[in-house]
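Archive maintenance. Older records in this collection stored only the sequence; we are now back-filling the structure field for every entry so that each record is complete. The fields below show one back-filled record exactly as it appears after the update. Entries are processed alphabetically, and SAM-dependent methyltransferase is next in the queue.

ARCHIVE ENTRY
Title: SAM-dependent methyltransferase
Organism field: Flagellimonas marinaquae
Length field: 250
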Amino acid sequence: MQLKSHLCKNKTPKMADAFGKAVLDYQKGLYTEDIKTFSSLDEEDVIPVPYLFRSFHKMPKIEQKALELARGKVLDIGAGAGSHSLYLQEKGLDVTALDNSKGCIAVCKERGIKSVVLGSILEYSDTRFDTLLLLMNGIGLAGKLKNLSHFLKHLASLLMPNGQVLVDSSDIIYMFEQDDDGGYWIPDNGDYYGEVKFKMEYKGMETDEFDWVYIDFNTLKNACESNNLNCELVLSGEHYDYLAKLTLKK
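Back-filled structure field:
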């Protein structure tokens, strides 16, 4: 698995402009190139823009499972081009697509999503939901491991008493060199190995560098335990990725 497939959320206004421009171009039939990504762990890569418009049947099993488990009033956090929201809306669920990219929200509207919110999840507190969706490593919006506790507390504040957070992420330990004993060579710089710095570029528009975090399941589970949340492993993928369900402890 490459990092590109789990980096499709927006974090800063400049980044949102590049990402939003790409999805708007595709929606208008002006697709000519993909989004380039540059990270502290990987060489130049791309996010194929058509992938952001995929149908349910072309989604990874982890995303399909999350959409099957979604129920009630749903908030799709970092909705992007709105593919997840659109599928749930067509199933009859009351879904709101949230993204801080004007371009993404415009595309969501054009694709027929009825309820959209332009803004950051950390600044959103309008209502509570039965399901929060954080797909394509939406937990990465926390930026760094030290921010995870605050991020989880905010998510918990948006949940109905019997609500759930459906989140996928990856353990990127596989990206580091492995020795003969099975251990991994991880830089001893004091940072969590899942913390990555990214930049994006699209048609000459380059974003500022931003923080992103991939969280292994045990680390996520421990953070949930510290914040009065249950954390259940729902499904493990083929490439160190997983789907987890978070719920409020009674």
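Update note: The chain has one domain: 3-174+186-248. The first helix runs from residue 13 to 27.
Entry marked complete.
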